[in-house]
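From the methods appendix. Each design record in this collection lists the tokenized structure first, followed by the designed amino acid sequence. Records were kept in a plain field format so they could be parsed without special tools. The example shown here is representative of the layout used throughout.

RECORD:
FOLD TOKENS (63 positions):
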């Protein structure tokens, strides 16, 4: 997946809310393979961590 597309996906998922539910209803943890993680830019890695940390805090996701 291209870096720009990955970042756009992460940003879109990080702010999702709908009339039928909030973040926890529409999001899930983002888990990548080691190879995919190695290919992330610093900005993409920060966005992924922000998303997953938000899920840990709001939804009780476990690492």
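DESIGN:
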């Amino acid at each position: 997946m291209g870096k720009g597309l990955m970042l756009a996906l992460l940003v879109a998922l990080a702010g999702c809310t709908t009339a039928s539910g909030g973040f926890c209803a529409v999001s899930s943890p983002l888990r990548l393979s080691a190879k995919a993680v190695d290919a992330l830019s610093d900005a993409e890695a920060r966005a992924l961590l922000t998303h997953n940390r938000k899920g840990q805090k709001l939804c009780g996701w476990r690492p």
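APPENDIX NOTE: The chain has a mean pLDDT of 84.
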